[in-house]
Design goal:
The complex is a heterodimer of chains A (188) and B (499). Chain A has 188 residues and is an all-alpha fold. Chain A is built from nine helices and no strands. A five-stranded antiparallel sheet of chain B has the order 1-2-5-8-7, with helices on one face. A four-stranded antiparallel sheet of chain B has the order 16-17-18-19. Chain B has a three-stranded antiparallel sheet with strand order 6-9-12, with no helix packed on it. The N and C termini of chain B lie far apart (87 Å). Classes of the chains: A mainly alpha (188), B alpha+beta (499).
Chain lengths: 188, 499
């Protein structure tokens, strides 16, 4: 059963597709959720939420790359859950640390793009910024801030020292800050 | 704007960036190099360069230029050259391409050694002592292959034997770099067959089943018409000095995955197999069974698995269709042959009275046997008793207690196969020692995991072979231990007779 077969089953509304996805990507999905939420019930709940989201979104969605689609869905579900949990003041996972690191980019009294249009512009700018990065730095950045991997895992993945990973992340955050200033999203 | 919004905005990064971050492991070239110390790398590269130059001169007898011959402009060839340079163990550079379904599949090389030891799968490095066939897959239209666009699987097949994904224990690792899929296929277990005609078939399926790969009348593997995916076949060259006829014989006798196809010399192959068995010093008859009906059983404490018959299930070995059976259900499965077997027993010269006596001897009454023991009958009429701790006693129809297996994780009796891996098919031989035949399985690891999982977690095929061989030589000194074991259960009093 490959990804195309699974997508076909989803389009045919065959529930077996969910079982195949769980088998093939359960651990992968759980890892992303746990990276953001920490190990525990929240991650399990998030993973269950992902299966439901996939079932509801495909079709009409026709992902070109199922694995990445699942990764994005899992991340979104986990971030949403994180928001709820933050409101309830609960900790855990790599996301709080990642968020703290990103907070370095922003000034204490940042202006806020309240409207959706501004947020859309922000997404485009971040994307454009990522395209300006060297391949390795971009990969490291996304492993940290998309997949919420810890620095030790990233170091192992890219055969780098952990201190080197932290240095790459620090430089990239600095570049991102400068980029967002240039783009007018934040002010010095 | 707050950090949450920024974090969320990163979540909308372009798919190609995410795919690259998802699959990147520091670059294919670095992956194939291991963890090079600069000096060692330089030395290795220099040595590799010299050997490669010698190889190229020898192989191509001064062609136009090396670049022209090996198309050095293409990145995947660089990888192979890197591989060759990094290790003296690189065996062959193939550089053969098949165009299939919009993809260009290139058989790059056969390689092993330290150049492979930095490729990881599930956190585990590939073993440098293993031999891999390395392929690259590119889109012919020049676009990138998506990281999960293909689900590659492969099958190494031997001419004349129905292709079976389990014929040689196998593992495929693939990783995508810059839109090119690189696949390393473990072909180590095919090494003893290096002097035979071997084919490696690559398909867009995790498991290359007999439904998509068959054997034609000439004994060659071919893709079926019903399969419409990536389909590439190459002749697999392996170093001739790796050929080992004795191992070949052993593998083919013991391994149900070497399935002589009925349409291609089936009976000759089967006869050859029987002849090899007959000429062997080992008494295989204890577990060969009759010619046409060869069931496969797997037994564990309290459970028996039956994969149905070898001949009936021909072509369906990729299906892990073994299912747990109770002892009663197993008896029901085999009962259809029992009458026939009984008649055969009579034909072998035993009178009714003798046969009944045997049956009575093989039947222990309550009290003679521990309560937790169970019993079942094998197709040849043998009665097997399950003892605690994975120990089995088998009483042959002629009354000889002939099989004891002890101290192992799980036990196989008769030829065993779940149909998914030849590694599940090794069985302890029965060797006659003065009326008591004993065998011990040493660390055989059959269990409920999938064959591939088991393959990774447990012994390599090479060590399994050693285990198998050691089970031959260790048997002679085990009589005392077995007698002691039996006496614990009041079954065996030290003589050859059963109480």
């Amino acid at each position: 059963m490959n990804d195309r077969d699974i997508l076909l089953l989803l389009e045919q509304r065959d529930e077996a597709a969910v079982r195949y996805i769980q088998t093939a990507y359960g651990a992968y999905c759980k890892r992303i959720a746990a990276n953001i939420l920490g190990q525990g019930e929240d991650a399990d709940e998030c993973v269950n939420d992902v299966w439901l989201r996939l079932w509801n979104s495909i079709p009409p969605a026709k992902p070109r790359d199922l694995k990445l689609y699942i990764a994005r869905t899992a991340r979104n579900a986990a971030v949403n859950m994180l928001k709820r949990r933050t409101a309830e003041k609960r900790g855990g996972g790599e996301a709080p640390a990642a968020l703290d690191e990103l907070a370095e980019i922003l000034p204490a009294e940042a202006s806020s793009p309240e409207d959706a249009a501004m947020y859309e512009e922000l997404k485009k700018s971040v994307n454009a910024f990522l395209h300006t990065l060297p391949e390795r730095d971009c990969n490291v950045f996304l492993r940290r801030y998309f997949f919420a991997d810890d620095t030790a895992s990233i170091a192992s993945l890219f055969r780098l020292k952990e201190s080197h990973v932290r240095l790459i992340l620090s430089r990239t955050r600095k570049k991102l800050r400068e980029y967002l200033i240039t783009e007018g999203f934040i002010y010095e | 704007m707050n950090n949450h919004e920024l974090f969320e905005a990163i979540g909308d990064a372009d798919e190609e960036l995410l795919a690259r971050a998802e699959t990147s492991r520091g670059g294919i070239r670095r992956a194939f190099f291991g963890k090079p110390l600069k000096v060692a790398l330089l030395a290795a590269a220099l040595a590799g360069l010299l050997s490669f130059t010698a190889f190229a001169v020898y192989r191509f007898v001064l062609p136009k230029t090396l670049e022209d011959t090996l198309n050095l402009a293409s990145p995947q060839i660089y990888t192979v050259i890197d591989t060759a340079s990094a290790s003296a163990d690189t065996l062959f550079i193939e550089n053969k391409t098949v165009h299939t379904g919009g993809y260009a599949v290139t058989f790059e090389a056969v390689a092993r050694g330290t150049c492979m030891n930095d490729i990881y799968k599930n956190g585990e490095p590939l073993r440098p002592e293993k031999t891999y066939a390395v392929f690259s897959v590119k889109k012919e239209d020049g676009t990138d292959v998506g990281s999960s666009e293909l689900s590659l699987g492969y099958c190494v097949s031997l001419k004349g034997y129905a292709p079976n994904p389990s014929m040689f224990p196998a593992e495929l690792l693939s990783q995508t770099e810059n839109g090119v899929v690189y696949a390393a296929c473990d072909v180590t277990s095919a090494l003893p067959f290096a002097n035979r005609e071997l084919t490696v078939s690559l398909a867009d399926r995790h498991v290359v089943t007999p439904e998509i790969l068959r054997m034609d009348e000439n004994g060659n593997a071919y893709f079926t018409e019903s399969y419409h995916g990536l389909a590439a076949q190459f002749t697999l060259r392996l170093p001739a000095d790796a050929a080992d006829n004795a191992k070949q014989e052993r593998y083919m006798i013991d391994n149900p995955c070497f399935d002589p196809d009925p349409d291609y010399g089936a009976f000759e192959a089967l006869d050859a197999r029987r002849e090899a068995i007959a000429s062997s010093e080992v008494d295989y008859s204890a577990y060969i069974g009759d010619n046409e009906w060869q069931p496969y059983y797997k037994m564990e404490i309290g459970q028996v698995y039956c994969a149905d018959t070898y001949l009936e299930k021909r072509g369906a070995w990729a299906q892990p269709d073994a299912h747990p059976l109770t002892i009663e259900a197993l008896n029901a499965v085999i009962s259809r042959k029992e009458n026939e077997i009984y008649e055969q027993t009579l034909a072998n010269g035993l009178s009714d009275e003798e046969a009944e006596k045997l049956e009575a001897a093989a039947t222990v009454s309550e009290g003679d046997f521990p309560a937790q023991a169970d019993r079942f009958t094998l197709p040849d009429g043998s009665v097997c008793f399950c003892l605690p701790g994975n120990n089995f006693l088998r009483i042959r129809p002629d009354g000889i207690p002939c099989f004891i297996a002890a101290d192992c994780k799980s036990v196989i009796v008769e030829t065993v196969g779940l149909g998914s891996s030849p590694m599940t098919s090794h069985t302890a031989p029965a060797v006659d020692r003065g009326g008591v035949v004993m065998a011990q399985l040493l660390g055989c690891y059959i269990d409920n995991r999938s064959p591939l999982e088991a393959q990774h977690d447990e012994v390599s095929d090479e060590s399994l072979m050693l285990i198998y061989e050691s089970s031959f030589v260790d048997i002679a000194c085990r009589e005392d231990a077995i007698a002691s074991l039996l006496s614990r259960y009041a079954i065996y009093d030290g003589t050859a007779e059963i109480r």
